[in-house]
Amino acid sequence: MHRRAPVATHRPDAGAWASYVPPVPKASAPLLPDRFRRWFASRGWEPRPHQLQLIEKARAGRSVLLVAPTGAGKTLAGFLPSLVELADQPAGPRAKGEGAKAERKLHTLYISPLKALAVDIARNLEAPVQEMGLPVRVETRTGDTAAHKRARQIERPPDILLTTPEQLALLLAHREAAELFAGLKRVVLDELHSLVTSKRGDLLSLGLARLHRMAPNLTAVGLSATVREPDELRRYLVPQAPSVLDVSTLVGQVAVTAPVPEASSATIPSPLVGEVAPKGSEGGGASQKRSRSERVVAAATQEVGAIPPSPTLPHKGGEGLLAGGGLDGAAGRVTLADLVVVEGGARPDIQILEVDARLPLAGHTASASMPAIYDLIRKHKTTLVFVNTRLQAEFVFQALWNLNDEGLPIALHHGSLDVGQRRRVEAAMTEGRLKAVVCTATLDLGIDWGDVDLVVNVGAPKGASRIMQRIGRSNHRMDEPSKAYLVPGNRFEILECRAALDAVHEAAQDTPDARIGALDVLCQHVLGMACAEPFEIGALFDEVRSAAPYRNLTYEEFEAAVAFVATGGYALRAYERFAKIVKGKDGLWRVRDGRVAQQYRLNVGTIVESPMIKVRIARASKKRPGAVLPRGGRVLGEIEEYFAETMTTGDTFLFAGEVLRFEGIQEDEVLASRTSAGTEPKIPSYAGGKFPLSTFLAERVRQILSDPFEWDRLPPQLTDWLLQQRRRSVVPGPRDLLVETYPRSGRYYLTCFPFEGRLAHQTLGMLLTRRLERARLKPLGFVANDYGLAVWCMSDITAAAGREPGFIEALFDEDMLGDDLEAWLAESALMKRTFRYCAVIAGLIERRFPGQEKTGRQVTISTDLVYDVLRKHEPDHVLLRAARADAATGLLDVKRLGVMLRRIRGRIIHKPLDRVSPLSVSVMLEIGRERVYGESADEILAEAEAMLLDEALG
Amino acid sequence: MVPLRKNKQTTAEIGLGDLAATLDLSGAMMLADEGALLVADLHFEKGSAFARRGLFLPPYDTRETLASLADVVARFDPKVVIALGDSFHDIGGPERLGDEERETLRRIQTGRDWIWVTGNHDRILPGSIGGEVVAEMALAHLTLRHEPEEGAATEVAGHLHPVGKVVMRGRGVRRRCFLTDGSRCVMPAFGAYAGGLNACDAAFKPLFPNGFTAHLIGTERIFAIAKSMLCRD
Containing H/E element for A185? Predict the structure, then answer.
């Protein structure tokens, strides 16, 4: 909510970074053992200050968040403390109890959001381990790891294990978990900024809470790109609202492994937390308490800012009913991990790609810019061309190949392509054999794809932090500027690019708010914990609340989750005898039998894929139109089932770089044929990584729009357009909502410009049409884009507004989020999809696995039917609560809509016009491109029925 | 497009041989001449059948199904109700039936005849659920059975849970439906949790060699849709 631009701090001699040596703390023992120093030297490297800083933190037993730009040696910094510690250990089995058979324990756990990243890092770690001859065993554990190896990893764990959040959840549900993790010293969470924004982050936070409990001396290290609220991530790393009953956990961050300054005896936990000078802070004066801004300045004065935890903050929000927890003296406090910030390297060289052509008012393909992009590709070594959707990826790829007279190696990479093909592109990329790759968000994250020297972002940036991440993909040396071009696809996108560019220059961030832990994920976790060992409900509640996203969980919610796991949690207690977990005489909850644990293992994880269907090449039969020859062609990749379902034979679409003709669905595959050269695809829109405009950029776009002085910085074609808008209607102020009503070819239109992103606009559109229908204006449909929406009716909206003062205000009244929203949610397909995801994650229904889909109607269960029944009988059920929470921020973005409706209260500018305005044209143009909403199921059926009548009468 | 609210009509008429049949929005069929109300695939206690496997579907499916059954029975007040098989999701279903549900069922049965045709899910039905149990039966010139039989003359059956899917302008609508060619009718499943099999599935082909019309159950009306308008899933 409070955006703060971390003060940009470029040391004047940034170029000389590699040779920069920080003032060495005098009294400290050498942080880096000789062996390591020699290794650095042999590589011609100097250990970077933040790398040393992390060793220091590790010695002091501190958890720490490292915020650093790409290329700063973040990963090595994360592992260095573990390598140093492990290097000192005897090479043989560590002494533990008696007998030579005593095994070494797992020392460090590394968690990455991507399987491929974990494998990549394991490879990179081999170099230092081998070259220094360290007695360290590094292994990965992913879904691909063989069963015997998994078993062995639990019996004889490696020193360092690299894995994913899902695999961690599985390990924690293992009966040997306590044994395995008891000696764990460190957990390293890579790409933490991206992990925490999703339900995977919720799941991981719960796993982390369990690790902290099992291994009280554990310290957590988070590696992150720059974020808006680093405190949220610092909080994520360490246990929150700890119970005083477990002092060791409480002060573990501060005092357990190190002698503590006198003032902070471990017996007085609450004032202690967060105020103790970290041990070994001799060098930095880091123990002073500083205000936020001072801290930033302090960080800015050094290459590396070491920042102590903030003073304790009051614990916000519901305390819940702590079961048996009268002794909550320390609850109500938050703890933060330490923070080490590596200030950004060289300032990125980023600009908007200017082309002579006039940009269209709508569309995202930027076709006019393709020759210029091709030219850039020619002039650079390797270019990454980022786009927002798979459709755009297909389009750009095709357009570039149409221009590719020189036959440059340009490849395509997106999530729907066949895995084999993706791997080939990635390999070619790493080997430097490609000149350019057109890609979607699939390449957003951390893997190093060779020597990229230019990033081109086609279409709207959508978010400042997103664009910075993408730009960071180019040039992995932090002391050289990354080079990037933003390519707007339409005139609104020029505004958005301008806003993003300003944000990048100020280093402003718009990463999302911290999540409130999802209840469906909690349900899954509770079952997992019961699989591991019997639990006491109060103890598990405390543990769960120590995870930052769940710190405000109430006992009532927690109980509901446990009840759900046990018997479904229904008021009608019909399933007691089938309970999955049962409370024993000892008061502990345990799983009923091994089958339950098996079920848990199959269901673990928070990623629910929308069902996909393969696309296979087939030839159309010449003899029988509409029929296809037997299959046998190549599989090109997969598309979403619901997209396939919206096509009819003869539709053409872009996929895998080709224009294909849809021939039909045969068994479980889409059959498609190749079209003759020059065929125009009908370009059906299929979803795939479509991000809504961030609130932050939206606000800036509104600013630029409303301030004529800003217009000077815009290209003339845009200024002209805005001037015309001002003449014909009005250009709204930054907080206003412009509503235009006008007639057009026998229909009456209403367009408005909330700038709140497509998802919120879709929801608004649904609710507006309901109200317009009640007002008897006979709405027919609407379209929405990121900036606004247009609704059209049979009756005159302008006239209605004239008859009834306050009509438009009432239309946009906040109370639409009450009954109207409820009524709509009852039948919304998006809400049903949201519910299905929750139902799968919580374990209400089983995941569908490939090949399992067609097992027959008796076995599968439609969650839509379950949703209807549950909604009617138990509207407050934990799964419906989970689904509503998701709807607030997910597919329906209700929360953002609510904020908007409050913002515009009393600030609606209604302009009755006699024809469409320049601004409105841009939304109107979406008609025919975007899906038109508003037709009820019955209207579709009525139309189909009418065709039968035509047939009969004709 | 004119709002459809005005045409609200909960039934549609079709002919089956020389009998007039009324299709109801609930998924039931009324044969007024015989005073018989037909329902198929109630799948009572499907929720609890899943619960046995650790999947705790909301335990309200039986009362939900019973509520709409009570409603349609009240509207038509038939002399006899005939359930065309798979009335219970499994053999143990009748035993798991809750007291309240058992009472509701008894109330609906009161004052009329009740016939359970057995299905593949409920080959055995205990006497405790009232009514008469048969494997199949004749009514006027119609044969009533659970699984439709290829080549049989005039027949009303269930078992297949037909649903029809219509795609128009990028939007798909999938609804339960009655399939009929004028002499045979396959009824939609009546149960709250009963899923569906697409009418384009090969299983329907031998039953309707000359094609069929699908009567799709919309939100407020029943729509007669030509087979050519239906899509696969």
Answer: none
End-to-end CA distance of chain B: 27
In this prediction, residue A84 carries a pLDDT of: 94
One-character DSSP codes across A334-345: ----EEEEE---
Q: Which of A38-52, A283-297, A544-558 has the lowest mean pLDDT?
A: A283-297
| Among A648, A938, A944, beta carbon nearest to B4 | A938
Do the strands A338-342 and A304-307 form a parallel or antiparallel pair, or are they unpaired? antiparallel
> Encoding tokens for residue B132?
């008469």
Cβ of A945 and B193 within 8 Å?
no
Burial class (CB in 10 A: 0-12, 13-18, 19+), A908: middle
* A599 interaction partners in chain B (CB closer than 8 Å): 54
CB pairs under 8 A between A and B: 157
A645 contacts in chain B (CB < 8 Å):
165, 167, 172, 231, 233
B179: Cβ–Cβ under 8 A, 6 or more apart, which residues?
A: B162, B185, B186, B199, B204, B207, B208, B212, B213, B214, B215
Q: Which residues face B140 on adjacent strands?
A: none
Cβ within 8 Å, pair B64-A873? yes
Q: Which of B43, B60, B68, B197 to mutate to test the interface with A (most CBs of A within 10 A)?
A: B60
CA-angle at A827, arms to A824 and A832, nearest 5°: 115
Is B55 in contact with A648 (Cβ distance < 8 A)?
no
Strands A186-189 and A108-111: parallel
Answer for the pair A395, A365: CB distance below 8 angstroms, yes or no. Answer: yes
Percent of chain B scored above 70 by pLDDT?
A: 95
Q: Which of B51, B169, B219 sits opposite A937 (nearest CB)?
A: B219
Q: Do B58 and A684 touch (CB under 8 A)?
A: no
Q: Looking at CA atoms only, how far is residue B36 from chain A in angstroms?
A: 28
Pairwise CA distance, residues A201 & A237, whole Å: 11
Cβ-defined contact of A578 to B51 (cutoff 8 Å):
yes
Q: What b/e string do you get for A105-117 counting C-beta neighbours within 10 Å, with b at 16 or more? A: bbbbbbbbbbbeb
For residue B61, the distance in angstroms to the closest alpha carbon of chain A comes to 7
pLDDT at A376 over 70: yes
Q: How far is A401 from chain B (nearest CA, A)?
A: 30
pTM, entire model:
0.80
Contacts B56 to A, Cβ<8 Å: 564, 567-570, 575, 578, 580, 844
Low-confidence ranges of chain B (pLDDT < 50): 1-7
The 3-state DSSP class for residue A782 equals: strand
Q: Which residue has the tokens 């060779």?
A: A450
Token reading at A675: 């079209």
Separation between Cα atoms, residue B91 and residue B120, nearest integer Å: 10
DSSP states of A160-181: EEEE-HHHHHHHHTSTTHHHHH
Query: Mean pLDDT across chain A, nearest whole number?
Result: 78
Q: How many CA atoms lie within 13 A of A186 on its CB side?
A: 31
Phi, psi dihedral angles at A315 (to 5 degrees): -80, 120
Do the chains contact at B229 and A944, CB–CB below 8 Å? Answer: yes
In sequence order, the 6+-apart residues with CB closer than 8 A to the CB of A373 are A353, A385, A396, A400, A456, A458, A485, A487
Phi-psi region at A651: left, alpha or beta (left = phi > 0; alpha = psi -120 to 50): beta
3-state secondary structure A394-436: HHHHHHHHHHCCCCCCEEEECCCECHHHHHHHHHHHHCCCCCE
Task: Provide DSSP, A637-669.
Answer: EEEEHHHHHT--TT-EEEETTEEEEEEEEETTE
Q: A936: which 2 tokens? A: 């009820």
CB distance A304 to A295 below 8 Å = no
